[in-house]
Design brief:
By secondary structure, this protein is an alpha+beta fold. The protein is built from three helices and six strands, in the order βββββαβαα. It has helices at about 45-60, 70-75, 75-90; strands at about 5, 10, 10-15, 20-25, 30-35, 60-65. The strands form two sheets. It has a four-stranded mixed sheet. A two-stranded antiparallel sheet has the order 1-2. The longest helix has 16 residues, at about 45-60. The relative contact order is 0.17.
Amino acid sequence: MKNNQVDGYKFRRQHPINIYIADFYCHKLKLVIEIDRAYHLAEEQQVLDKERTATIEFQGLQVIRFTNEEVLLKLPEVINKIKEFITSVS
């Protein structure tokens, strides 16, 4: 990700969507990317995350979630998954 862009698509950091703040958002792709820390593994948090995702998707947006570890340890694979999404909607 260079200058918050992937394949020429600009991603905004900490972008407000409804009552939430998305980690990354691309308006042109209608894509929200969420980066989940370890506490997202807790059952209570997973319920909240599902509600959050449903609220965001209800607005016609797509959500992709990655773990913090994936971003830190496997960034090329994370970027490839984002590129696969871009290819699937282009």
